[in-house]
């Protein structure tokens, strides 16, 4: 059986994001599966996984806000910026809780962040962590990110637990290291949990074991978020006859032909269904009287 949609996986410690995809391919017995944002092997939490036609949503879902709960320890620096790396320096931090609070909250807002060497970013066809393992460090281009909110959940110096809401592309390890640099004592990340990715929250995430058990009972569909969930703000259109044929072929369609079929919602883009309720495509307005294909989602 082939599935189409998004399944919110709880990635457990020790698995890479690709490990999760590989295991799901075995459990669901299908190849067309992808994830929507890498999590470090030691990190846990939300990993939305796309199935079948939903693989076309990867860029869209990757672009969403993320939320993390992280713990950092002051006074230590490592080559990986987390506690698993080789210790580069160690000191007893001489800072007050007030200074720590001020330093952490100063990172709220847009900023440029240098990605860590131990990351999956590719430079000239090679992943940075591959170079790092060979002892090679290269200059990395700073990236524009934004920290929307930081909450300090617990401060038991030298350990601090924080909740961070941020844009895509944010490295929490780098944020922890930057906090340590600002306090002139260094810091490493000791734990990381992704609690949200877009609309997908940890409270509604499934472990691989739970998915495997559901597959044995043929209940996986109950865990899958439909593809059209991402487009519910757009007006809905149901087409048949020649219009249905045109949509299946990816042809442009006239606004006049669907005007009476439009439901309420944003009509700059419309979500299109066949008479049986199967989601087919998102069309976008090309000219005031004409729509063209934005994304096709014909079932696999």
Question: In words, what does this structure look like?
Answer:
The chain has 300 residues and is of the alpha+beta class. The protein folds into 3 domains: 86 residues, Pseudouridine synthase (2-Layer Sandwich); 132 residues, Pseudouridine synthase, CATH 3.30.2350; 69 residues, Roll (Archaeosine Trna-guanine Transglycosylase, Chain: A, domain 4). 21% of the residues lie in helices and 37% in strands. The chain has 8 helices and 19 strands. Strands 1, 2, 3, 4, 7, 10, 11, 12, 13 and 14 form a 10-stranded mixed sheet that branches. Strand 2 and strand 3 form a beta hairpin. It is elongated. The chain starts with a strand and ends with a strand. The model has no long low-confidence stretch (mean pLDDT 92).
């Amino acid at each position: 059986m082939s599935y189409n949609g998004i399944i919110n996986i709880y990635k457990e410690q020790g698995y890479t994001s690709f490990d999760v995809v590989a295991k799901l391919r075995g459990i669901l017995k299908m190849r067309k599966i992808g994830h929507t944002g890498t999590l470090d092997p030691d990190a846990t939490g939300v990993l939305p996984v796309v199935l079948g036609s939903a693989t076309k949503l990867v860029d869209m879902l990757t672009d969403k806000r993320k939320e993390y709960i992280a713990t950092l320890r002051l006074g230590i620096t490592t080559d990986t910026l987390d506690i698993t790396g080789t210790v580069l320096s160690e000191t007893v931090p001489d800072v007050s809780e007030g200074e720590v609070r001020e330093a952490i909250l100063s990172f709220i807002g847009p900023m440029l962040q240098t990605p860590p060497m131990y990351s999956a970013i590719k430079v000239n066809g090679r992943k940075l962590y591959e170079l790092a393992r060979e002892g090679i460090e290269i200059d990395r281009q700073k990236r524009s990110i934004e920290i929307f909110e930081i909450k300090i959940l617990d401060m038991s110096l030298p350990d601090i637990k924080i909740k961070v809401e941020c844009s895509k592309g944010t490295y929490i390890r780098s944020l922890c290291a930057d906090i340590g640099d600002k306090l002139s004592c260094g810091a490493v990340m000791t734990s990381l949990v992704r609690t949200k990715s877009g609309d997908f929250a940890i409270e509604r995430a499934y472990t691989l074991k739970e998915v495997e058990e559901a597959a044995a009972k043929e209940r996986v569909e109950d865990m899958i978020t439909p593809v059209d969930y991402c487009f519910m703000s757009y007006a809905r259109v149901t087409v048949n006859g020649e219009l249905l044929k045109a949509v299946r072929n990816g042809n442009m369609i006239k606004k006049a032909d669907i005007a009476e079929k439009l439901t309420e919602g944003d009509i700059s883009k419309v979500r299109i269904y066949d008479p049986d309720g199967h989601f087919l495509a998102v069309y976008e307005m090309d000219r005031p009287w004409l729509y063209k294909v934005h994304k096709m989602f014909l079932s696999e």
